[in-house]
Amino acid sequence: MTRRFDDGKEQWESWQGFSNVASGLWRLEEVAEWPLSGDRLFWYAPEMLQLSCLCGQIRVELSRRPDFINECNCALCSKAGARWGYFHPSEVIVAGTAKGYRRQDKEDPTAEIRFCENCGSTTHFNLTASAVSKFGNTLMGVNMLLADERDLAGVELRFPDGRAWAGAGEFAYIRDARIIG
C-alpha cells in the first residue's frame, strides 16, 4: 500500500490497518492512531478496480486489471454491449442483485450473462452449472466497459470473430489488437 501526501511524495507502508478479505482484496479497517499530524493522505491499491452499473445497484470489485480484453462480435456479446475481461471467480466480488440470461439458441450454453434489473447494464457473466461440471469453476467475465478507460491504459484489446467461431478451437480475429490508452 502507498501513503501519498499533499506534496505528492509517496511512502510504502506496512499493511497495518488493512484486512485481507475474499479474493485477495484488501479493505481499510478502523485504526484509532492514524499518524495524520495535519497531513491529508489516502491509501490505494493501484491494480484494484471498482466498477458499477449505471444506477449503482450492482458493484463489482476486481483484485487486478485484466490481462487482456475481448470485444467479441458474436450476437450475444455485441447485443449485450460488452467487452470482456476474464478472471478467476476468487478475484471478483459482485454486490447487488443481477438478473441472468442464457442463450436460447444453444443446446448447452456455457455462460449466463448477468445484468442490472434496474438500469439494464450488462455487468458480468458466470459459467453455467453444465460448464462448471465440464471445466471447473475457473472463469468469470466482467464487462470492462463499466471501467474508466484511463484505468485500463496499457491493456491489450482484442477483437475475436465470435460470429464465425464454430464453438471449438481458437478464435480468428477480425482485426489487429490495440493497446488501450
Key phrases:
disordered N terminus; 2 domains; globular; 8-stranded mixed beta sheet; single chain; 16 strands; Metal Binding Protein, Guanine Nucleotide Exchange Factor, Chain A; mainly beta; 181 residues; 3-stranded antiparallel beta sheet
Describe the fold and architecture:
- By secondary structure, the protein is mainly β.
- It has 2 domains: 43 residues, no CATH class; 114 residues, Metal Binding Protein, Guanine Nucleotide Exchange Factor, Chain A.
- It contains 2 helices and 16 strands.
- The strands form 4 sheets. Strands 11-12-13-14-9-8-15-16 form an 8-stranded mixed β-sheet.
- The longest helix is centred in the C-terminal third of the chain and has 7 residues.
- The chain starts with a strand and ends with a strand.
- The N terminus is likely disordered.
Question: How much is the radius of gyration in Å?
Answer: 19 Å
Helix-strand string: EEEEEEEEHEEEEEHEEE
**Helix/strand-derived class?**
mainly beta
First-to-last CA distance: 25 Å
Beta fraction of the residues?
Answer: 25-35%
Number of helices: 2
Instruction: Return the CATH topology of the largest domain.
Output: Metal Binding Protein, Guanine Nucleotide Exchange Factor, Chain A
Number of domains: 2
Detail the poorly predicted runs: 1-45
Q: Identify the strand order in the major beta sheet.
A: 11-12-13-14-9-8-15-16
Overall helicity: under 10%
CATH architecture of the largest domain: Beta Complex
Overall mean pLDDT:
79
Shape assignment: globular
CATH level 1 name of the largest domain: Mainly Beta
Strand count: 16
Main sheet: strands, sense, barrel: 8 strands, mixed
